[in-house]
C-alpha cells in the first residue's frame, strides 16, 4: 500500500469559482483550530505524542518512520516499500505471521503505507488490546531484523510483485507516474523513481540489503509514535517506556533539504497503453515542497483553474469545446519538491493536441480575468468544514499529529496551516501562477489506447517503460513459508511475552430517536457532539429498480442532473451557494434506492436544508447540462472497459441475475442502454422522488428538537410513492462453470467466484456473515493467509455476501499472478468445498471474539452511524439490532456454523469468472475439470 498523507488543508480544499452574491458575512476558519496533545521524548530519541479521546473505547497507534523511497539509491529502488512488507512478517517475541493475523482477531484493523518520504504503520484496536498492540508494534519496530529468512524474503518479493501488477501493470494509465518521474526529476534525484520501484531491483534484493536498510533507518530517533484514543496519559507513558524504550536509537539520519527541480526544456512523451480505452493528457510543472509558503496559494490556484462551473479550464475544455467530461488541476507536494499537475482523460478518439490547445486557451482566460476575491472567501468557508472532517476519527488525528511533528517539527502545525491558508490573497495566487506555471517548462504525457497513435500530441517522443513478462512454470516464483530463523533473542530488562487483555469494552448502540414528518417521511437520528459537524442522508426507495426497460442509468443520470442548478439558480450559482456554507450536497442512485446526502457545520444546517429543498422541488432541467452529462457518461462507460475488475464484475452479475434483472446492470447503465435515454425519461422518473416511504437519516451535533425544527420546511414536499416492481431470478444459475474473458497480456487474473445466497432481510443473513469471517474476513481469513502469506500468489483475497433487499451473492474475489491462476483456483475450490468440514470449535470462539471486539471501532465515524440508521429504516431492523446480533453470535454453536455453510456455500453451485490472458491461461484453467465458456468483455458468449 502506498498512500500519501497530505496536510489536511492540502487534502481537503475543494474550491469553486462562481458569481452569485453570498449571504454576508462569510466566515473564515477558526484561527486557533487545533488538536490537544501531549508530547515527550524517550531517552532513545523516539518522539511520542498522546491525544486523549474517550468518545469510543478504542485506541489508534501510528508509527511514522522518516524514511521513504527518497532514501533509496539507484539500482536498489523500492526498498522502503519492500521493507514495510517485510516488517509485518515476523519478530523475535511475536509468533510468525501474528501481525497480519492476530490484530484482526483482537477486533482491530492494521496496515502500513510507504510514500516518497515516509513509512507509516498503524492500527486501531479495542481498548482491551491496547497493551497488546504496543507489544506487537514495538516488536515489529525494534526486534524483527534477526527473524528475516531467505524464504520470507522471496515470498514477500512475490507479494510486492503482485501489488505492482494489480496497481500498475494491469491498470490503465498505470505506467504514467513512472514516465513522469523519470523525466521530471534528473537521474540521482530521490524522486526519479516510483515508490514501488523497479522489479529487477527488487528481485535482486538480498538479506544483507534488508539488514543494511533496517540498521540505517529503523532507529527510534528516526520516528514519531502517536497514540490517540481512550487512554490515560500517565499509564500510557509508563507502557510506552516499557515497550519502546529499549529500541536502539540507530545512527543519526541526515536531514534532507528541499531539492526543487527546473527543466531546461519542455518534454513531450507518448505511450501506447494496453488497457486504456481513452486518450489522457497530463502536464506536470515543477513546483514547491510540502510546508513551503507558496504551497497554500498553489493549492487554491488548482481549484480556481478547474474546480467549478466558472473555472476557466472547465469552461473551455468541458463546456465549450466538449473534449472531456472533466479536468483536474492540483498541487502535489512532497518533502523535497512538488508538482503542479494538469490532467485530462478525454472523450473517445479525441486528439490530445486539441486538449492541449484548449488548456492554453483556458489559461489565457484566467490571466485576463484574474482571481475573484469572493472565491477566496468561499474556499475558507468550505475549509472550516473540511478541517473538522479531516480529524473526525482517532486514526486521522494520529496521522495529522505524527506527520506534522515528523516533517514540520510541530504536532500542532494544523493551526499554522489554517492561518497560512487564510492569509492567501488574490495577488498571491496570481504571483504563484506566474512564478511556477506561466511560460515555464513541464513534462507532458500523451497516453493513448493501443493502435491510436494519431491522437498523441504532435512531435511527442515515445516513452520507455520496463514491462515485465510473466511466464508459466517459473520456479523462482513458487515460494512457501520456509523454516523459521535461528537467532539469539535480544536481551531485555522487561518480559516481552504477550501481555494479557485488559477489561473487555462492551459495545452499546448509540441512542436513536425517530419521528414522522407530516409529509410521510420518517426521520432517524443519532446525536453526537464530538465535532460541530452534521451528516445527513435522504433515502428514497426505488433507485435503478424504477429505471424504464432498456434504459438502465436513468436514475443515475437524474441524480447528476439535479445538482446542475435549480429553477432560480444556474449550475454555477448553486455550486457557489453550497460552497459558501462550507457544505457538500450530493445525489446518487443505487440498485434499490435514490439518495440525497450532505455534510455541513451544525450552524449551517438550516441553510443547507433550504438548498436541499430547492434542489428537490425546483429542478432546472438544463438541456445544455444534460447533454454535457450524457457525453461525460459515454466517456466514463467507455473508460470502464479498460478495468479488468469492472469487466469481471459485469459478467459475474449478468451470469448470476440474468441480463434483464436490474442487479445485473451497473447503475450508470451501459453503452447500449445509454443510447436510449432522453431528457424526458429523466423528467418522468422525477415523479418517483416523493417523501412517502422515504427516510431522513442524520448523525452529528443536532438534537432531535433542533433537527425537527429545521425539517418542518420539507413538509411542503409531497407526493404518493410509486409501486416498486419485483423481478424474477433466473431458474438456471450457470453453476459449476468457468467463464473466461480474454484481456491480452494481463499480468494478473481477476477472479470472481460465487453464487446467489440471500437477502439482508433473511433471518440467516447475519449468521452467514459470521460464518464467512474465518474464510475471507480480512487479512486473518484463510483465503488471504494461504494465497498471499503462504503462497505469494496475490496481494489480497477476500470473500463475503452483499447486502440488499434482493437476494445478494456470496463472492470470493482476488487478483492473482497470471502463472498462478490454476493453483489459486484449486486452493479456493478446495477451501470452499471443505469449509464446513474443516470448521472447528476454535473457529467458533475466534469468530465470536473477533467480531464482538471489532464492533467497538466499527461505528466511530458519523458515516458509520448513518449506516446504522439506514439499516434500521431499510431492512426493518430494531434500534438495538447490533446488540441483538452480538447475542446471536455468542449463542451460535459449531453445528450452527456447519449448517449455515452447508446451506449457502455449496461449491458445485458456484460460477467462476476469470479475466486474464487467454494465450497463457486457457489451457491451464481447463485442468480444473469444469466446463469452460469464453465471453467477450461485455459478458456475451464468443
Automatic annotation (TrEMBL):
Pfam families: Peptidase_M16, Peptidase_M16_C. InterPro entries: Metalloenz_LuxS/M16, MPP/UQCRC_Complex, Pept_M16_N, Peptidase_M16_C. Residues 48-170, 527-648 form the Peptidase M16 N-terminal domain. Residues 205-383, 676-851 form the Peptidase M16 C-terminal domain. Belongs to the peptidase M16 family. This is M16 family metallopeptidase. It comes from Bizionia hallyeonensis.
Amino acid at each position: 500500500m502506498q498512500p500519501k498523507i497530505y496536510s489536511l488543508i492540502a487534502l481537503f480544499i475543494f474550491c469553486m469559482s462562481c458569481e452569485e452574491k453570498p449571504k454576508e458575512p462569510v466566515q473564515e476558519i477558526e484561527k486557533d483550530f487545533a488538536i490537544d496533545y501531549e508530547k515527550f521524548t524517550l531517552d532513545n530519541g523516539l518522539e511520542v505524542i498522546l491525544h486523549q479521546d474517550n468518545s469510543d473505547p478504542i485506541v489508534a497507534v501510528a508509527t511514522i518512520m522518516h524514511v521513504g523511497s527518497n532514501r533509496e539509491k539507484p539500482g536498489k529502488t523500492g526498498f522502503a516499500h519492500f521493507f514495510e512488507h517485510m516488517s509485518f512478517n515476523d519478530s523475535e517475541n511475536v509468533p510468525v505471521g501474528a501481525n497480519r493475523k492476530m490484530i484482526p482477531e483482537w477486533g482491530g484493523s492494521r496496515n502500513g503505507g510507504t510514500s516518497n518520504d515516509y513509512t507509516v504503520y498503524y492500527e486501531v484496536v479495542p481498548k482491551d488490546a491496547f497493551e497488546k498492540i504496543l507489544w506487537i508494534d514495538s516488536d515489529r519496530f525494534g526486534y524483527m531484523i534477526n527473524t528475516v529468512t531467505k524464504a520470507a524474503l522471496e515470498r514477500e518479493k512475490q507479494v510486492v510483485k503482485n501489488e505492482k501488477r494489480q496497481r500498475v501493470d494491469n491498470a490503465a494509465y498505470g505506467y504514467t507516474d513512472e514516465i513522469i518521474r523519470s523525466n521530471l526529476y534528473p537521474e540521482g534525484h530521490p524522486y526519479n523513481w516510483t515508490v514501488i520501484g523497479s522489479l529487477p531491483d527488487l528481485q535482486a534484493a538480498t538479506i544483507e540489503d534488508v539488514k543494511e536498510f533496517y540498521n540505517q533507518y529503523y532507529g527510534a530517533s528516526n520516528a514519531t509514535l502517536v497514540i490517540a484514543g481512550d487512554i490515560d496519559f500517565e499509564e500510557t507513558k509508563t507502557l510506552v517506556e516499557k515497550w519502546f524504550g529499549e529500541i536502539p536509537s540507530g545512527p543519526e539520519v541526515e536531514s534532507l533539504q528541499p531539492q526543487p527541480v527546473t527543466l531546461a526544456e519542455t518534454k513531450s512523451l507518448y505511450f501506447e497503453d494496453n488497457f486504456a480505452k481513452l486518450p489522457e493528457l497530463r502536464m506536470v510543472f515543477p513546483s514547491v515542497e510540502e510546508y513551503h509558503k507558496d504551497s497554500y496559494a498553489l493549492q487554491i490556484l488548482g481549484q480556481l483553474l478547474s474546480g467549478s462551473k466558472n473555472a476557466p479550464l472547465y469552461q473551455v475544455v468541458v463546456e465549450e469545446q466538449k473534449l472531456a467530461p472533466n479536468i483536474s488541476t492540483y498541487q502535489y507536494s512532497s518533502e523535497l519538491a512538488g508538482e503542479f499537475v494538469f490532467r485530462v482523460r478525454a472523450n473517445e478518439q479525441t486528439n490530445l493536441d486539441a486538449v492541449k490547445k484548449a488548456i492554453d486557451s483556458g489559461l489565457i482566460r484566467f490571466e485576463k480575468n484574474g482571481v475573484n476575491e469572493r472565491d477566496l472567501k468561499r474556499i475558507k468557508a468550505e475549509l472550516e468544514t473540511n478541517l473538522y472532517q479531516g480529524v473526525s476519527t482517532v486514526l486521522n488525528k494520529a496521522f495529522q499529529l505524527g506527520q506534522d511533528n515528523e516533517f514540520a517539527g510541530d504536532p500542532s502545525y494544523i493551526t499554522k496551516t489554517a492561518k497560512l491558508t487564510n492569509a492567501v490573497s488574490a495577488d498571491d495566487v496570481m504571483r504563484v501562477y506566474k512564478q511556477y506555471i506561466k511560460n515555464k517548462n513541464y513534462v507532458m504525457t500523451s497516453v493513448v489506447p493501443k493502435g491510436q497513435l494519431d491522437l498523441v500530441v504532435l512531435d511527442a517522443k515515445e516513452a520507455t517503460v520496463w514491462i515485465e513478462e510473466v511466464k508459466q512454470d517459473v520456479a523462482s516464483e513458487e515460494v512457501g513459508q520456509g523454516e523459521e530463523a535461528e537467532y539469539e533473542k535480544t536481551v531485555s530488562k522487561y518480559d516481552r511475552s504477550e501481555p494479557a487483555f485488559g477489561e473487555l469494552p462492551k459495545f452499546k448502540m448509540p441512542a436513536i430517536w425517530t419521528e414522522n414528518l407530516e409529509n410521510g417521511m420518517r426521520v432517524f437520528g443519532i446525536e453526537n457532539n464530538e465535532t460541530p459537524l452534521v451528516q445527513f442522508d435522504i433515502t428514497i426507495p426505488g433507485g435503478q429498480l424504477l429505471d424504464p426497460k432498456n434504459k438502465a442509468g436513468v436514475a443515475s443520470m437524474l441524480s447528476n442532473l439535479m445538482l446542475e442548478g435549480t429553477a432560480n439558480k444556474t449550475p454555477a450559482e448553486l455550486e457557489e451557494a453550497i460552497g459558501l456554507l462550507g457544505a457538500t450536497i450530493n445525489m446518487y442512485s443505487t440498485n434499490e434506492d435514490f439518495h440525497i446526502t450532505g455534510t455541513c457545520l451544525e450552524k449551517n444546517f438550516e441553510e443547507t436544508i433550504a438548498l436541499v429543498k430547492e434542489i428537490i422541488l425546483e429542478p432546472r432541467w438544463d438541456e445544455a447540462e444534460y447533454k454535457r452529462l450524457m457525453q461525460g457518461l459515454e466517456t466514463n462507460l467507455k473508460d470502464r472497459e479498460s478495468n479488468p475488475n469492472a469487466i469481471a464484475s459485469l459478467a459475474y452479475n449478468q451470469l448470476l441475475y440474468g441480463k434483464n434483472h436490474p442487479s445485473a446492470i451497473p447503475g450508470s447503465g451501459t453503452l447500449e442502454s445509454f443510447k436510449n435515454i432522453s431528457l424526458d425519461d429523466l423528467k418522468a422518473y422525477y415523479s418517483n422522488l416523493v417523501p412517502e416511504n422515504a427516510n431522513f437519516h442524520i448523525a452529528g451535533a443536532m438534537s432531535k428538537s433542533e433537527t425537527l425544527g429545521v425539517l418542518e420546511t420539507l413538509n411542503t414536499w409531497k407526493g404518493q410513492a410509486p409501486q416498486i416492481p419485483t423481478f424474477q431470478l433466473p431458474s438456471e444459475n450457470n453453476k459449476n462453470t468457468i467463464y473466461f474473458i480474454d484481456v491480452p497480456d494481463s499480468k494478473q487474473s481477476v477472479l470472481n467466484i460465487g453464487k446467489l445466497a440471500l437477502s439482508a432481510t433473511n433471518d440467516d443473513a447475519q449468521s452467514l456473515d459470521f460464518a464467512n469471517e474465518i474464510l475471507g474476513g480480512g487479512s486473518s481469513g484463510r483465503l488471504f493467509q494461504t494465497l498471499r502469506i503462504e503462497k505469494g500468489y496475490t496481494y489480497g483475497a477476500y470473500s463475503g455476501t452483499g447486502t440488499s433487499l434482493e437476494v445478494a451473492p456470496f463472492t470470493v474475489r482476488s487478483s492473482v499472478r497470471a502463472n498462478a491462476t490454476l493453483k489459486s483456483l484449486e486452493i479456493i475450490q478446495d477451501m470452499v468445498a471443505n469449509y464446513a468440514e474443516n470448521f472447528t470449535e476454535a473457529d467458533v470462539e475466534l469468530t465470536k471474539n473477533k467480531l464482538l471486539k471489532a464492533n467497538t471501532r466499527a461505528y466511530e465515524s458519523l458515516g458509520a452511524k448513518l449506516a446504522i440508521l439506514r439499516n434500521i429504516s431499510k431492512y426493518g431492523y430494531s434500534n438495538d439490532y447490533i446488540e441483538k446480533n452480538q447475542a446471536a453470535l455468542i449463542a451460535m454453536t459449531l453445528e450452527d456454523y456447519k449448517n449455515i455453510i452447508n446451506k449457502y456455500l455449496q461449491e458445485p453451485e458456484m460460477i467462476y469468472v476469470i479475466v486474464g490472458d487467454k494465450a497463457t491461461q486457457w489451457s491451464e484453467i481447463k485442468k480444473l475439470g469444469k466446463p469452460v465458456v469464453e465471453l467477450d468483455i461485455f459478458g456475451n458468449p464468443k
